[in-house]
Amino acid sequence: MTMTTFLRWPTTWSATLCIAVLLTVSLSGCGAGSRPERNRAPMSETAPVNVTVEQGAEFAHLKLPASRSEVWFRAEGGMDPAIWLSFRAPRADVERFLTESGFPPLREGHRSIQVGAEKELDWSLDQLSDYAGAADTVNGVMRQVMVDHADPAAWHVYLFAFRTSFSLPSESSR
Fold first, then answer.
1. In the prediction, which pLDDT does 16 show?
2. Residue 113: its pLDDT value, please?
3. Residue 7 within any structural domain of the chain
4. Which of 80, 127, 164, 174 has a Cα-to-Cα distance from 142 of 20 to 30 A?
């Protein structure tokens, strides 16, 4: 090996090593974006949990009406536990539910459930035309409720409740 070859060898070797490292790093990210966004875990690292509707109601400090029908429920645990609940009930029972659960008075046309909270749920809250909403905080649980009263016989209740490590402003705190 001549002196010129010897001096070029570390430079060639270093360049080859750098190229190999760059290729490895760049190729390792190729599969990262292949999963659809809706299948990724949320930032709060929540996960579905096996919780009954009654346990969810207890978490959110709710007094559910016995007459409820078409109940849909989902719960997630983790850093920010949350529940989503919807049901139908006669108007008088929904009004009693709201009062006994301690919600502030509903405001007509008020979208109280934060945008995005219903993602992946097929609630279509943006398509409601005759609704009212309210939000509050009870013992660290933020509660957001909307009532669709397009059908005067049976109102449809949508509720999102969650506990988080930071505080959000609400319409009423107790």
1. 52
2. 83
3. yes
4. 127
Chain center to CA of 141 = 14
Residue 106 in this model has a pLDDT that exceeds 60: yes
CA pair distance 18, 24, nearest whole angstrom = 10
The verdict on 112 and 83 lying in the same domain is: yes
Please indicate, yes or no, whether the overall pTM of this predicted structure exceeds 0.70.
no
> In terms of domains, do 125 and 102 share one?
yes
Q: Please give the residue range of the domain that contains residue 21.
A: 1-34
Report the C-alpha gap between 115 and 139 in whole angstroms.
Answer: 23
| Pair (29, 4) in one structural domain | yes
* Mean pLDDT across the chain: 75
- Asked whether residue 40 is domain-assigned, the answer is no
